[in-house]
């Protein structure tokens, strides 16, 4: 663990880090708990005074150094990520540049934290508004994007002048620790970034109770997000929650089907379907349903599944046994309710790693689990619809509201549907909408707040109004 500018934790009980491609133990990391969580806050609190008083330019300079080192080490980090998380190496490299784009973007944006002057109604007054860093930030992150979910939080937090305590997922701590090592090498002062690994409940309990932690930023499941939201109430922390999704992918009868197939395959099967904005349900308009399903199935059959470090692999292993079991359960449930498996449907290389075949199920409807709950795996159910109003209503039927996709060549339809979707992100003829400069986040139970863009840095700032009378 990296706490108070030191590498610690060898004396503690250790947790195994497993490669999901072959179930081998690749490393051990300390099982930190309450004591380590508190030490990390002590350190971050101590560092806040000096870090927040640096100029935005000075902070930017250090963030750019970190960015440069990450760039120089991206191949090594991508390999590490593939080994602990499973995604194919080329996807891991892609994540490294996506992750790093948050650091460079916020290194710039931190210099544009502007205030305001407001016209007063009394000529002997001046009204000023300043933005100030919120203080110590606690960040809790998931395993599916081991680098990006950290930089998307730590980049804007540091640029705003906050210091951080980070708890990465138990499954993928190595990428997080490597990021901390590079931050140290970049000269980011001691204690500004602290990384605690270990027991999530014990660590978060301490952070939630500690009133010096002024902001909690969490990415993970809706279930844990709700727990943390309740826990943050006692000290009235600011919170940002990036939670689960259930993205509909809508294909209208005038869509460019080849473009839609390419996008749905990328959106559904990257990271073996373990992405919060990945397609969960495909809705195709009746007259093109057969043609679309055939083209999609052909593309899915071509996907190569295997160890992400091997050449030519499109889909890696899933994170663990439970993840595979959930896909199995969703496939069996869909079949029991009339779904037809047109490709895949089975676990692969059982005993070797956690693999599941990329799967397409047709004749799907909303009675099925996979049309309501996040499968978080390589299963694409296809449902058929008749009318525009019908598909909007069906697309909005879950409690989630993170990302939705619409494919149509008709501009009027495109605008009408996008505006009616209760989702924070709409990919219009676009299967990969996420970028550093745009706001990312959900409606409804998919979360609170936004990451990315100028919206993302506001989450780490307090607004101070100064009224001056003379
Ligand atoms: P998870 O909620 O189980 O874990 C996320 C983090 O919370 C991990 O660090 C974990 O150790 C910690 N955690 C678990 N239980 C906790 C507890 N009781 N108290 C405090 N911390 C706890 O989620 P996961 O399985 O790691 O990730 C998958 C989920 O994350 C999916 O639902 C996915 O949609 C969501 N996700 C959302 C986004 C987004 O931006 N909206 C991005 C990626 C993943």
TrEMBL record:
Domain annotation Aldehyde dehydrogenase: ranges: 10-466
NCBIfam families on file: SSADH
SUPFAM superfamilies: ALDH-like
Organism superkingdom: Bacteria
Protein family membership: Belongs to the aldehyde dehydrogenase family.
The keyword Transmembrane is annotated on this UniProt entry: no
Organism: Scopulibacillus cellulosilyticus
Keywords, sorted A to Z: Oxidoreductase
Keyword Oxidoreductase: yes
InterPro entries (alphabetical): Ald_DH/histidinol_DH, Ald_DH_C, Ald_DH_CS_CYS, Ald_DH_N, Aldehyde_DH_dom, Aldehyde_DH_NAD(P), Aldehyde_DH_Superfamily, Succ_semiAld_DH
GO MF annotations in UniProt: oxidoreductase activity
Annotated protein name in UniProt: Aldehyde dehydrogenase
Entry-linked Pfam families: Aldedh
């Amino acid at each position: 663990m990296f706490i108070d500018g030191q590498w610690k934790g060898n004396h503690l009980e250790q947790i195994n880090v497993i490669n999901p491609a072959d179930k081998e133990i690749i490393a051990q990391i300390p099982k930190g708990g309450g004591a380590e969580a508190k030490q990390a806050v002590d350190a971050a609190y101590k560092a806040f005074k000096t870090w927040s008083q640096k100029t935005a330019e000075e902070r930017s300079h250090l963030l750019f150094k970190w960015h440069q080192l990450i760039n120089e080490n991206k191949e090594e980090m991508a390999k590490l990520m593939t080994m602990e998380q499973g995604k194919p190496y080329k996807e891991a490299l892609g994540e490294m540049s996506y992750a790093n784009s948050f650091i460079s973007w916020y290194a710039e944006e931190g210099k544009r934290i502007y205030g305001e002057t407001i016209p007063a109604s009394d000529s002997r007054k001046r009204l000023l508004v300043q933005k100030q860093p919120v203080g110590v930030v606690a960040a809790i992150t998931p395993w599916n994007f081991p680098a990006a979910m950290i930089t998307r939080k730590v980049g804007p937090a540091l640029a705003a002048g906050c210091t951080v305590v980070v708890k990465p997922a138990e499954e993928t701590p190595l990428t997080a620790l490597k990021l901390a090592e590079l931050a140290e090498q970049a000269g980011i002062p001691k204690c500004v970034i602290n990384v605690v690994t270990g027991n999530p409940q014990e660590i978060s309990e301490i952070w939630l109770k500690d009133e010096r932690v002024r902001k909690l930023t969490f990415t993970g499941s809706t279930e844990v997000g709700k727990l943390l939201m309740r826990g943050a109430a006692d000290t009235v922390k600011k919170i940002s929650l990036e939670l689960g999704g259930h993205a509909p992918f809508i294909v209208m009868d005038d869509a460019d089907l080849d473009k839609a197939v390419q996008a749905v395959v990328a959106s559904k099967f990257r990271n073996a379907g373990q992405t919060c904005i990945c397609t969960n349900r495909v809705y195709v308009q009746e007259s093109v349903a057969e043609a679309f399903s055939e083209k999609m199935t052909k593309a899915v059959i071509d996907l190569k599944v295997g160890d992400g470090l091997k050449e030519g692999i499109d889909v890696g292993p899933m994170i663990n046994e439970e993840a595979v079991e959930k896909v199995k359960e969703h496939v069996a449930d869909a079949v029991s309710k009339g779904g037809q498996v047109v490709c895949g449907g089975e676990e692969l290389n059982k005993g070797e790693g956690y693999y599941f075949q990329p799967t397409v199920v047709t004749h799907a409807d909303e009675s099925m689990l996979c049309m309501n709950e996040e499968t978080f795996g390589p299963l694409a159910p296809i449902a058929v619809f008749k009318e525009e109003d019908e598909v909007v209503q069906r697309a909005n039927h879950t409690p989630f509201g993170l990302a939705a996709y619409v494919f149509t060549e008709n501009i009027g339809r495109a605008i009408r549907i996008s505006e009616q979707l209760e989702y924070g992100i709409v990919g219009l003829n676009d299967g990969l909408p996420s970028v550093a400069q745009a706001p990312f986040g959900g409606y409804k139970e998919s979360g609170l707040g936004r990451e990315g863009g100028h919206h993302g840095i506001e989450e780490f700032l307090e607004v101070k109004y100064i009224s001056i009378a003379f």
